[in-house]
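[Meeting: bench + compute handoff]

Bench side (C.D.) handed over the final construct sequence. Compute side (W.E.) agreed to return the predicted structure before the next meeting so the bench team could plan truncations. Sequence as handed over:
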Amino acid sequence: MISIDIYTPLKDLAGYLKEKYNSDEELFEKFTLIRERVYKLHEENLKTREELEELKRKENLRDGLEFDDLSGIYTNNDKSEYYCPACLDGNNKKCRLHRYRGESNHYYFSCSVCSTTYREK
């Protein structure tokens, strides 16, 4: 993440204005207001960047995965690996499911992280 130092130039400018135009209270008040707004914009920008990085990270979790509507689970493109939708959608964790044969020869998927079970259709 690129970090821009806005504090030092504003601090230097504030010192300069106070020294040079000490008697001009209106000018100094306007500068103070501008400085506060710049700080607020900078903080909002940092927060937005962090949120964007988090969204990118979450989206990257789903790269190469498809949602199988019938069984309600995520699979990789060649359907050789299965992932828990509860963990992926709810906790942003890519947890593999374990496939096993259950009653009546039906296959089930079980998540060892959240203990959710899905039936293969």
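W.E. noted at the follow-up: Residues 7-60 form one domain. C.D. will use this when planning the next construct.
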